[in-house]
Amino acid sequence: MSGMVSTKTRYDAVAIALHWLTVLAILSLLAMGWIMTSVPPGSATQFMLFQLHKSVGITVLALTVLRLGWRLAHKAPALPDTMPPLEKLAAHLGHVGLYFLLFAMPLTGWALVSTSPFNIPTVLYGLVPFPHLVFPAALGSKAALNADFVNAHFIGVWLIVGLVAVHAAAALRHHFVLRDTVLTRMLPRFGPSRPGVAEPRFRHGESR
Ligand code: HEM
Ligand code: HEM
């Protein structure tokens, strides 16, 4: 992602829409994940929540493919010049880590469902039958693979929770402490757009 910076002052509408749709999806997946693993096993509620979790999770995979494609084709606005190089590096590594987890979470989820002894079909949003992944026997027994994918999915949960917490805290620090445009340029701007007009906001290090 480094090297992909520009003189733009804001993220574009597509990047913003995909960012916040993803946030909504992840928060609902975490809630569903925890609820569905604590309701009575085998209940209709559990079945419904599993199907919804799988549907929204696969949606995140699709959104992330689109998003990464969009991101590689469209530069991101440069971080403020006044940011220390180590902080810029931390921001980039954080974003790379988030992208990694946005792929790893759905893929480990899909893989664990595909190797489950229950072998329950996935029907996205009750409408679209979704296939299971097939793993070559050389990779190990189905049961062993399933245990590994479940572990990876559960470890990923804590990694994404931790990274998102740091990421959100950093965004809030930029807005409320450093008072730069790093948060607002990722927020939707409603009302008429004013092309070419820079946002009248404080810059990093500027006195108030
Ligand atoms: C970004 C995407 C995802 C997130 C954030 C997420 C999050 C979670 C969470 C929080 C849990 C509960 C963990 C626990 O009980 O401690 C969970 C469990 C589970 N997830 Fe996901 N998930 C995602 C994608 C998927 C996908 C795409 C699938 C399947 C297609 C899936 C299938 C499952 C299943 C079957 C369980 C229950 C596993 C078990 O109890 O053995 N997840 N997920
Ligand atoms: C599930 C939660 C979240 C995920 C997975 C996520 C993921 C990401 C990713 C991957 C980027 C990099 C975008 C790019 O340049 O390609 C990004 C940027 C950003 N996110 Fe999030 N985010 C989440 C939640 C939040 C929250 C809660 C906030 C605000 C409090 C936030 C504020 C921002 C901001 C301001 C940027 C732009 C940073 C910059 O200008 O370099 N994000 N997010």
Automatic annotation (TrEMBL):
Residue intervals passing through the bilayer: 12-36, 89-112, 118-140, 152-172
Major site of localization recorded for this protein: membrane
Protein's name according to its UniProt entry: Cytochrome b561
Signal peptide (from-to): none
Keywords annotated in UniProt: Cell membrane, Electron transport, Heme, Iron, Membrane, Metal-binding, Transmembrane, Transmembrane helix, Transport
Top-level taxon: Bacteria
Family label: Belongs to the cytochrome b561 family.
Compartments where located: Cell membrane
GO MF, any single term: electron transfer activity
Named cofactor requirement(s): heme b
